[in-house]
Amino acid sequence: MANMLWLQGGACSGNTMSFLNAEEPSACDLVTDFGINVLWQPSLGMDMGENVQKLLRDCVSGAIPLDIFVFEGTVVNAPNGTGTWNRFAGRPMKDWVKELTAAAQFVVALGDCATWGGIPATAPNPSDSKGLQFLKKQHGGFLGANFKSKAGLPVINIPGCPAHPDWVTQVLVAVATGRAGELELDDLQRPKTFFKSFTQTGCTRNMHFAYKVSATEFGQRKGCLFYDLGCRGPMTHSPCNRILWNRQSSKTRAGMPCLGCTEPEFPFFDLAPGSVFKTQTMMGVPKELPEGVDKSAYIKLTAAAKSASPAWAEKDIFVI
Amino acid sequence: MAYLGMDSSNIQPTEEFPEDAPLRAQVEKLLHAGLRSEVEPRAYDPEMQQSVLARLQHVLAEEVAKRVEIAGFTLHPYAAEGIEEACETCMYFLSHRQFCALPELQLPVKPDWSCRLWRI
Ligand code: SF4
Ligand code: SF4
Ligand code: SF4
């Protein structure tokens, strides 16, 4: 039996919603099949008021062993470092976070807000928000770069806006069943099993990418979304086209560009006007070219790819 | 134009769209006859691009000359800083149909034509 406590800081509840939609395994499977005891969770917890405060105090003191602490949302530090803009169970949430992360065997940051600060930490970051162990790309965050939980691991980051339900439940199962050691983390502390490949891996539009046939509008059943609509699939680490959403589809399959939501810089360009759903160009040429390719080589490559493209690349394909 | 021995002008326009050929010929004739299109300023930055697109959105599909004029069509590639901005390499160009798929234009073109909305 592994005790799990889940709290929510500066967040929209998207990751809780995602978690409740999990299928393989489901949130119920965690309890019935994998021995996870949900001490409290914002949408599932039955206790309120005094009872929650007592539960949290017991977790901090060790009276209740805290195996997994899941945090969703940013750590809010405003105003002036007090954190009182986000109070919970009688005190600033950030004070609970400090004590609970010190008491937990494993700490899981869930969603972009908890991992890197996400949308709330976007400039000018009015709530002075931080992720647990990162602020955007900068290592450190609220807990500091050297933080390790009792089991000796840094914060396990499961980014996404929101994270895919199965990334969450599968990581929780690994931790609860004593297989946390098998979770290899990348430089940004994301489990490699999910975040080693790119959104583009498995995208049904890969041939259009190769032949440089562009989609020009959302939802089109042909064309790659990279050239015009700002798809970040080739630069984003996520398994969105390997582990489909709702077991059905993905953004790019539905004709919607990947926004790069699993990367610390998300939302990119601080949401400056004209930066969303638009490939950034200089004199009509993408600003971010594949490594080692200069402008004139890129143009030659484009001409070659386009002239080699088969006729079907210009026709609608069936995309699920 | 030919790059790396590949030449998309060898690709014959698909016959699936019989309406394309007369329309392409009409555009060519208009430009040969001296239609002055707005070749410059180029629509490189997002603001300029938006303003050209916004103007095109107000033009009826049958007003071909107006669309050609606003988009700044030329019958040859526009060259800037050593780069040839030809339909052939433009992201909106469908090489088999020889067609500009930019939603605001939707016109048959030729690989060595160009316009100021070129993007690669
Ligand atoms: S749509 Fe995006 S993910 Fe898919 S091939 Fe194009 S760039 Fe890659
Ligand atoms: S496709 Fe991109 S933006 Fe969408 S969920 Fe996956 S990583 Fe995030
Ligand atoms: S947008 Fe591109 S393909 Fe269309 S006319 Fe202009 S240069 Fe040619």
TrEMBL record, chain A:
SUPFAM superfamilies per the record? HydA/Nqo6-like (SSF56770)
Q: Which residues form a coiled coil?
A: none
| Residues that, per the record, bind [4Fe-4S] cluster 2 | 203, 224, 231
Enzymatic reactions: H2 + A = AH2
Q: Report the top EC class in one word.
A: oxidoreductase
- This protein's source sits in the domain of life called Bacteria
Assembly, in brief, is:
Heterodimer of a large and a small subunit.
Question: This chain belongs to which protein, by name?
Answer: hydrogenase (acceptor)
Instruction: Please name the GO terms of the biological process aspect recorded for this protein, alphabetically.
Output: anaerobic respiration
**Origin species:** Acidithiobacillus ferrianus
In this chain, [4Fe-4S] cluster 1 is annotated as bound at: 12, 113, 161
